[in-house]
Every structure is written in structure tokens, then in C-alpha cells.
Design goal:
Elements: H1 6-21, E1 42-46, E2 72-77, E3 82-89, E4 96-98, H2 126-132, E5 147-151, E6 157-166, E7 169-170, E8 176-177, E9 180-190, E10 202-205, H3 213-219, E11 226-231, E12 237-241, E13 252-255, E14 265-274, E15 277-288, E16 295-297, H4 299-310, E17 339-341, E18 350-352, E19 370-374, E20 381-384, E21 390-392, E22 398-400, E23 402-404, E24 414-416, H5 418-421, E25 424-429, E26 434-439
Parallel strand pairs: 3-10, 4-9, 15-24, 16-23
Antiparallel strand pairs: 1-12, 2-3, 4-10, 5-6, 6-9, 7-8, 11-12, 11-25, 13-26, 14-15, 14-19, 17-18, 18-22, 19-20, 21-22, 25-26
Length: 452
């Protein structure tokens, strides 16, 4: 059977979600038919993919927030509500939009910058304290505005002020509610010249901090402080707030390791297995981050993984340097079937065949599966088949989607990004302090109770 084209799929997915998300014409402030709002969820269709719309890591808010990757959702904000495209980022907790306050320096985006309407958050608001924790906001008076600044590893940044406005949300139990939520009004964005303008209007911060959108909804009693995403390998998928879409069985759970200073989702240490065998790579601190297109290992783990991949039959490497640096591959990569390719500038390790590859299916049998075994939970393993770490580029090359985290300043942390989270429902349960995942068809919405 011929696979559905990406445009047809997006149109069908949009039609499926349309009845849930068309709120602008029927929006009623804080009107609800729910009898128990905590049992309900909010669902958003996701647009985008890892490649070609995703881009390699350029910088981060917390760890892997890849400023230009392209899995995003549409949120309606304000009164009257206006749509904005927001990157989904579980690596940070601040949601922000480009803002005409006025706009000191804004970058091209799909929609006009948000315009505040005397809705600034002051320093005395607990949400301001939460955002700046464990530091403090420097305010001469509690009535001063709550400023923020986020800095990126590539010297990009966003500077602005916290504001509150209405977020009309359609819940799965039929409720249509418009809570006032806090977010960043970014009036000064810095982006390096080497980076192309983003495809979005801002960032949807879904990290573990209380200032995240889902954290605020939980504090209001509107839904559980649970966030989940399902990223389709074909592009698209869905995002949800709340717990009623979480499957009752089949989920692999591991404790969420966090401190008062951390707002990302850490799963503790893991052991890497390659093709079912121990790879001798242990104690890897793992972070799940939907804000990173690719997966990043620290230098030692990356070096070890690359050595094992290149030792795979049909994938060999001849290096002129007797002490090779795996980041700088010699051009003389020779294999029985695949050869080293160097025409994909953003991905350093690529192979080509006798003719261009059309999909991962053309090459996946040459590569071996990876497994991460987590030490803080019993029988908790994350299986990464070749589809979860390979990219077929526009040049028809097969490229390794696991990169060297030391090159982007991640030090010892290891980021599991979108490429390795595809075709899995991933759940971040902030109430039970656990993270779970299960293989899933992310092209199809899970069953939930009918709308009232």
C-alpha cells in the first residue's frame, strides 16, 4: 500500500482535530460544563517533523531547546483570541511570544507580534518568584514589572516582561474555558547571523517549573499537572495536557529525578546497549527534551557509539590518523555497500549508497538497534531502532542523528531529542513525579470520552 503523502495526512489530521480546537467563534470566558475538570485534558495537533523542517542544535534555554526545530502547536491567546505558532519545549518552563511592547528587536515570524494591554505581571506575583527560582528577581518595589531574560548557548537570547492574558482552551469533556495564564512578552530577541529565522512565534515551555503553562493549569485545578506528546515519524502528531489520555497499561515508567533548581525532565543514569550487547557505556545522565531535534551524547559515549556503529558489517572506516577524533571523520570512509558522504553540512556522519536513499527503510537493516537501560527503575528500557537515530536527507544520504553534545556545551548531560522520541507517547507526570513512554501510532488520536 502506498504511504499517505504528508500534505494529505496533515489535511486529514487537521479535519479530525477541527471540532476540538475551533474555539475562536464560540469562546466564552471561563464558562465550563465540567463536573470534575481535573479528569479532563486539552489536546493540540502538532505540525512539523525532524527533517527537513527540524534543524540541528543551535542553543538552549535549559539543555536541548533547539531554537529552530519545527515541531510546533497553535495556541489562541488574548481577547479576541489570535493564533500563534509555538515550539513545544519540555526542556524549559517559560512560554514566550514575540511582543510589540514596543518591539525593540524582533525577528521574522508567522504572525504579527503580540500586543500587551496593561496586563503586566508584577514582582509580587508568585509566578514571578517561580520563574526566577532559585535566583531572585531584582525589584526595588513589589509593584514593579517582572522582567525575564533567557540566554542561548549560541549567544541568542530573548528579553522581555511577564504578562497575563486569556488562553481559550477546549477540554475533552466539552468544556470551553479561558484561564488567564502568565507568559513572556519578548520585545528583544537576538539571533546569530548564521541562524535562519524561526518558523514560529515563540516557545511553549512545558518543563517541570511552576511557571509552565501546564503547571499553571494544574494550580488552577483545571487539569492534572501532566503533559504528554506523540511525535509521528511521518510528521505531525499531538500534544496533551492532563491525564485522561494516558493509557491504563503498557507504559514503561521511571522516576523523575529533579531538584528545586532543575526544570528539565531527568531520568537519572542509564546503560547503553548496542545490538543487544553491553557497550561498556554506563552512568549516562539522561534528559528527555522535545525542544531538541536530535539526540546528543557526551563525548565519551558518542565516541564509543560511533566506534561500534562503524564496526558494523558493511560500515567500515579507514582513518589516516592513528588516533582518530570521531568528530572529524576522514574522507576515506569505505564500506562493502555504503560509503562516507560529506555533502550534508549540518550532520557530520553520513553514508551514501550506489543510488540515493528514499527512506530509512532502504538502509535500516544495515544498522543495529540501541537500548538505554535505566538504573533507577526495574525493567525500564528505551528501545531505539535505526529509525530512532537515522535521518535520510534531501541528498539521499543516511545520517547519524545522534551528535556530540560536547560541541554544544552539554558537558556530561545526554539529551534524548525528537528523533528518538518519534512514534512513542511520552508522558511527564509532574504529580506522581514519573516519566513514561509506550510505542504508539501518533497519526491517530487515542480514545477519550465523547464531548458533552
Amino acid at each position: 500500500m502506498e504511504l499517505m503523502g504528508p500534505l494529505v495526512y496533515l489535511l486529514l489530521l487537521y479535519a479530525r482535530f477541527q471540532g476540538i480546537f475551533s474555539v475562536s467563534n464560540q469562546y466564552q470566558k471561563s464558562k465550563s460544563t465540567a463536573t470534575n475538570r481535573l479528569d479532563s485534558s486539552v489536546i493540540f495537533p502538532i505540525t512539523g517533523n525532524v527533517y527537513p523542517q527540524g534543524m540541528p542544535f543551535r542553543g538552549d534555554i535549559a539543555f536541548g531547546m533547539d531554537y529552530h526545530r519545527y515541531y510546533h502547536v497553535t495556541l489562541n491567546i488574548g481577547q479576541p483570541p489570535k493564533p500563534y505558532f509555538l515550539d513545544i519545549d519540555t526542556g524549559s518552563d517559560l512560554t514566550w511570544l514575540q511582543c510589540d511592547a514596543p518591539c525593540t528587536k524582533c525577528i521574522p515570524s508567522p504572525h504579527a507580534p503580540y500586543k500587551p494591554k496593561k496586563n503586566v505581571v508584577t514582582c509580587k506575583d508568585p509566578i514571578c518568584t517561580s520563574l526566577h527560582w532559585p535566583g531572585t528577581q531584582r525589584c526595588e518595589s513589589p509593584e514593579e514589572q517582572c522582567d525575564y531574560e533567557v540566554e542561548y548557548a549560541d549567544n541568542g537570547s530573548s528579553l522581555g516582561v511577564l504578562v497575563k492574558d486569556l488562553f481559550p482552551l477546549r477540554f475533552t469533556n466539552g468544556s470551553l474555558i479561558g484561564p488567564r495564564l502568565a507568559f513572556g512578552c519578548g520585545y528583544n530577541q537576538e539571533v546569530p547571523n548564521s541562524v535562519q529565522p524561526p518558523y514560529t512565534d515563540g516557545v511553549l515551555g512545558l518543563g517541570a517549573g511552576k511557571s509552565s503553562i501546564v503547571g499553571q493549569l494544574g494550580e488552577m485545578g483545571l487539569t492534572r499537572n501532566v503533559v504528554g506528546h506523540c511525535l509521528s515519524g511521518q510528521g505531525g502528531g499531538f500534544l496533551f495536557f492532563g491525564s485522561d489520555l494516558v493509557p491504563s497499561s503498557g507504559i514503561i515508567w521511571t522516576p523523575m529525578l529533579s531538584t528545586s533548581e532543575e526544570k528539565h525532565y531527568s531520568l537519572g543514569s542509564a546503560v547503553l546497549h548496542f545490538d543487544g550487547q553491553a557497550a561498556g557505556i554506563k552512568g549516562l545522565p539522561i534528559v528527555f527534551d522535545s525542544g531538541s531535534t536530535y539526540t546528543y551524547f557526551n563525548f565519551k559515549a558518542y565516541k564509543g557509539l560511533l566506534s561500534m556503529v562503524l564496526a558494523t558489517p558493511n560500515l567500515s572506516l579507514n582513518m589516516a590518523n592513528p588516533n582518530p577524533d570521531p568528530v572529524r571523520l576522514d574522507k576515506d570512509l569505505k564500506g562493502k555497500q555504503l560509503q562516507y558522504a560529506n555533502d550534508d553540512k549540518n550532520l557530520p556522519v553520513c553514508w551514501k549508497g550506489t543510488k540515493p536513499f528514499k527512506s530509512i527503510s532502504d538502509v535500516k537493516n544495515v544498522f543495529r538497534p540501541l537500548i538505554l537501560t535505566f538504573t533507577k527503575a526495574k525493567n525500564a528500557q528505551l528501545h531505539l531502532p535505526p529509525e530512532s537515530y537515522l535521518i535520510v536527507t534531501d541528498n539521499g544520504n543516511a545520517c547519524l542523528g545522534i551528535l556530540n553534545g560536547n560541541e554544544v556545551g552539554l558537558e556530561n548531560y545526554n539529551i534524548i531529542g525528537d528523533i528518538s522520541l518519534q512514534d512513542k507517547m511520552v508522558i511527564y507526570d509532574n504529580e506522581k513525579q514519573q516519566i513514561g513512554w509506550v510505542s504508539s501510532n501518533c497519526n491517530r488520536l487515542p480514545k477519550f470520552r465523547p464531548l458533552l
